[in-house]
């Protein structure tokens, strides 16, 4: 199983871009479609306005009870009913990365309740986290979410709650891309 | 500052290979010299028998008191007197990576005292940790150490103490490469 993913914004792909909002820092060029490629890094194809690369990795903050609770509740990606998606690339500040592990964990969970908040929206919202800071990408994380249309408001609530946490004081760039699948998802 | 490093084993480079021992799992082909290249990944040059790639990253386990104590005591690399070095590539088991963050931390430090043991050998032994599991390399970590010849025995003690810890139960591949710098280090 290859842990590398490329997100290509351009004119192709099964995801239609419904909205693309730069929330903090530099935005991203508006595009019509998004394509996701797993495996070998996608070249900056002439058709793509931008390519974002990330990789899945081991758990970095979650404790055993949190991992178990997540595994029990979190759904798989590509559910037929999950025709809505969001790609939210985030970059955190140098100050965040200079913190020690216990300091980052304390802000992430004990103060900001990141996992606990996310847990409230399971199994409605499926997600996958891609890391990209270490591979020289412009963002630190590419977070990918999938949900059914009727859970759009719940997803907005989830983001609203996370964005007012202390953890978000360390977010210096954030783009919010909303997507709709153009075909039946089988 | 580029966080990518390539270690090329072959016939070139300022580090003469004094010993190359496969300790667990598959070894590495014996070579005469080692060269370290920072920046763009080195190609698998025809002259190199093997190329190992890794990148530096943020702290993953250390707490604030540990980070502060390390920063206060740890020396820089490339000290003129540090004519000896070791490259120790390590791969941990799938079981290790499936652990939650608190479980890995507990084994790493509260049980195995990895940082505390390392601290006892500062400032004699300088080190840099390179991560490589997420980028599809054969090892998870490439650990690089530099020390003066008179601290060789201390360095052996350090390794002896780490290799009997519970953390090492999760090490499934380890190669130990000892090196000597062939020129004055200026």
TrEMBL record, chains A, B:
Enzyme class: oxidoreductase
Coiled-coil residues: none
InterPro entries (UniProt xref): ChdC/CLD (IPR010644), Dimeric_a/b-barrel (IPR011008)
Keyword terms of this UniProt record: Heme, Iron, Metal-binding
Xref: Pfam families: Chlor_dismutase (PF06778)
SUPFAM superfamilies from the UniProt entry: Dimeric alpha+beta barrel
Molecular function per GO: heme binding; metal ion binding; oxidoreductase activity
The protein, known as: hydrogen peroxide-dependent heme synthase
Native source organism of the sequence: Gloeobacter violaceus (strain ATCC 29082 / PCC 7421)
């Amino acid at each position: 199983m290859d842990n590398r993913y490329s997100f290509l914004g351009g004119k192709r792909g099964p995801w239609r871009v419904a909205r693309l909002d730069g929330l903090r820092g530099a935005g991203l060029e508006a595009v019509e479609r998004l394509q996701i490629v797993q495996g070998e890094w996608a070249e900056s194809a002439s058709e793509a306005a931008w390519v974002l690369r990330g990789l899945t990795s081991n758990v970095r903050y979650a404790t055993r009870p949190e991992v178990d609770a997540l595994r029990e509740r979190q759904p798989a990606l590509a559910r037929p009913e999950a025709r809505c998606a969001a790609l939210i690339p985030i970059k955190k500040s140098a100050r965040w990365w200079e913190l020690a592990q216990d300091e980052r964990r304390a802000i992430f969970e004990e103060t900001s309740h990141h996992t606990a908040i996310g847990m409230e929206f399971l199994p409605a919202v499926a997600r996958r986290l891609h890391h990209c800071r270490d591979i020289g990408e412009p963002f630190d994380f590419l977070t990918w979410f999938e949900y059914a249309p009727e859970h759009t408001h719940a997803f907005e609530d989830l983001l609203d709650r996370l964005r007012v946490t202390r953890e978000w004081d360390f977010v210096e760039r954030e783009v919010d891309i909303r997507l709709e699948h153009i075909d039946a998802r089988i």
